[in-house]
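User: For my dataset I need records formatted as: sequence, then structure tokens, nothing else. Please produce one.
Assistant:
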Amino acid sequence: MSDTTLTKNDPALAAGAFTRTVVSDLSRQRHEPAWMAEKRQMAWSLAEDIPLPTTRDEHWRRTDLKPLRWETLRLPEPPPMSLAGSEALPQPFRAALDLEEPVAGRLVVWNGHVVWHSVAPDVSARGVVFTDLATALRDYPDQIERYFMTTCVMPGENKFTALHAALWDSGAFIYVPPGVAVEHPFEVVIGLSGEGSAIFPHTLIVAERLAAVTVIEDNLSLDNEVAGFSSGVTEIITGNGAQVTYAPLQRWGDGVFSFGTQRALHAPDSRVVWEMGQLGGRLSKTYVDSLLRGDGASVQFNGIYLVRGRQHIDLDTLMHHSGRGTSGDLLIKGAARERGRAVFEGMIRIDPGAQQTDSYLKSDNLILSDRARIDAIPGLVIDANDVRASHGATVGRVDEDHIFYLQSRGIPRRLAERMVVEGFFASVFDRMSQERVRRKLGAAVAAQLGD
């Protein structure tokens, strides 16, 4: 299909902001190797063939894309600054970076362009790579060719992964050699600004055998009122016995539509911990998958989400057990106020050969107003007979007796509500290993709820 034959039944392509010519220009401007240019073109062909999801699709029954105006989107303008020191960064970036805390490295990407990058010398000296993805493609082409959307997340999985593979602009590449444990976390900030700006960030984490690393990622808008778009992918690839903690915080502005696929591919005896907060955006749909293919692999998921106003958050998780003796433990809590809408779909899937699996999924949800709504849909598919697997989900309203008690002590209702929600989230925060993640999420929740 050529640019001139796009049909009206695909608004994402018919809008004209994203075309095969744009894809070609990206490769040429970045002087990319031929294999990446070809990969982008193949992904664009997939994007042309794969339809946009509708509410007739099982995983999209409760999330409607009609509010998204594709004709308003465009690739963003470069930021008004180049690579610089932290003192030159806009305040939202500085606030997100925990500048007083020790880190292994920091990376700030604004509208697809790197504006700050630092790595601790002792970390680099041990063979660890921490850089932006575009630089990694130039300096480590063999590793990017091996790992980038080849075994973990594939371009043809859905419309948004295909668009991402064709139009990815930047992101982070973290490579940890065998046996290396990185003591302090890496911090990555993905920033968006400009009316109608569309970005396609990619995070690629490779932890080799017995390696250990923590990555904290913050996705934020510089202007809360600006409309925008993000289609991101995260790939976590582990070696035998590797340990990865990945903490993504999504707090886009109120006008941003975001779509993401985040997936971990587990080798034997590896462990991945997700520490997630979903707090922003006008509408977001995120897949978070753990593919436990290696024997003895394990995953822990600690997450919260909070919706308000007209926000719509749809979180779809999968713990897919294929290896023997694998384990999974997911706890997620959500709250909705005003007209906020949230959807949580959690699935535990156990393959026939995945004997001695131990997996648990728990979702608790709190409704804070009459017009808010949360749908929690846990599921189990078990094809093995020597396993332990269970799930649970609750949706309830805030206990007015708790609010009344606090108000009777002179606490305004809005602050009382905030205290109840923070207490509700406390059991998730207590499971998080990273104090700075707990602190950052707590502050973000407080900001959403107000005083």
